[in-house]
Structure formats: C-alpha cells, structure tokens
Design the sequence.
C-alpha cells in the first residue's frame, strides 16, 4: 500500500523512501509474529529476521547497509504516522461441520452469534466465507460440499440481517487442509468454514 511521501508498509516491514535512500525495518505482524524480509539490490542482499532490525539502501549498485536494531521509540518517531494508518487486521472465526454434511457441529450457535456481532461492530461489507472439507470422497464431490457449507453460513448470516452482497463465498474442497492427512482420511478439523471479516 503506498502512502503519501513515499512511505509504505508491506508484509511486516516498514519502508521509508527519501530522495537518496530507502530504509527498511522489520516489525511484527498484528498477531505478534515476526517474519523476515530480504532487501536486495544489484550490489547485494541483507536478510532481516529480528524484530526492529533495519537496513538502508543508499544506492542500488551497492549492497544494503549492515542491519541494526532500531529502538521502538525510533521506529515510532520515524514510522508512527504510517503505522497508525494501517487497517485493523481481519477478524477470523472457524465453524466446524459434521461428517459429509452441511450441518454445523453442536455448540456452533455461539460462534455464529460472535460472527454476527463482529460484522456489526466493524460495520463490515467485506466478508469472506470459505468452505473446506476433509479428504474423504473425491475432489469434485468435496468442492461441491465445501461450497454448500459456505452457502449455508451465508444463508444463516443473511437471515440475521447481514447484506448478502457483503459476503463472498469461496470454497476449496480438500485442497487447503487445516491438518494435512493422507487421501481418504477423515479429519474433523478440516470440515470447516472460515469467516474473515475485514
């Protein structure tokens, strides 16, 4: 995302571009995880892997400068306005289903209520409802079942007053498991719908 004055945030790193140099600092994701960023020029590469680690590119023909750790106060003073403008991270909920069914597991009512509350709280019209299955059955059948699961949740939320045009159905069948298993294996954690509220 490009912000005014050539400041941008990308994948847990903050970049500040001045007329003659670019600074990069690695910051944690919204969930506190610290990934890594490779800063590469014609002259070389620096890999940032620690929270607050920073490098600077002065000239594209030279390697980025050796990494240094920036104090949080320095990160705040240089990048504070940009960090404050980041959108809230998505809210995620998972609903689980009975075997070979579009019926929710018992006790899912509280999760549906929480989803509804979060959509209203965010005043969101950007909601993904993503269906999944385990690896029993063939791929064509599982894709159809994952779509039916997604559509079932959209119907429930529509009945609670959420505008259907604010929800997007996605479905992956067995192709994006929460827990990897052998083909044909039943796995309750994979029979799910994930709801992402942005």
Sequence:
């Amino acid at each position: 995302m490009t912000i005014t004055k050539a400041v941008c945030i990308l994948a847990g790193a903050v970049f500040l571009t001045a007329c003659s140099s670019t600074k990069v600092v690695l910051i944690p994701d919204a969930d506190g995880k610290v990934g890594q960023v490779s800063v590469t020029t014609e002259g070389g590469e620096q890999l940032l892997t620690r929270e607050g680690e920073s490098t600077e590119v002065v000239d594209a023909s030279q390697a980025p400068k050796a990494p240094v750790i920036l104090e949080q106060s320095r990160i705040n003073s240089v990048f504070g306005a940009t960090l404050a403008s980041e959108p809230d991270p998505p809210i995620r909920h998972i609903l689980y289903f009975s075997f070979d069914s579009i019926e929710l597991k018992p006790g899912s009512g509280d999760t549906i209520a929480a989803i509804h509350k979060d959509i209203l709280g965010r005043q969101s019209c950007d909601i993904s409802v993503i269906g999944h299955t385990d690896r029993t059955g063939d791929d064509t059948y599982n894709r159809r079942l994952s779509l039916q699961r997604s559509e079932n949740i959209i119907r429930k939320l529509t009945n609670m007053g959420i505008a259907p045009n604010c929800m997007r159905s996605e479905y992956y069948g067995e192709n994006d498991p929460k827990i990897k298993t052998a083909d044909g294996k039943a796995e309750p954690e994979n029979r799910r719908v994930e709801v992402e509220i942005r």
About this structure: Residues 93 and 115 are 7 Å apart (CA to CA). The chain is about 25% helix and 30% strand.
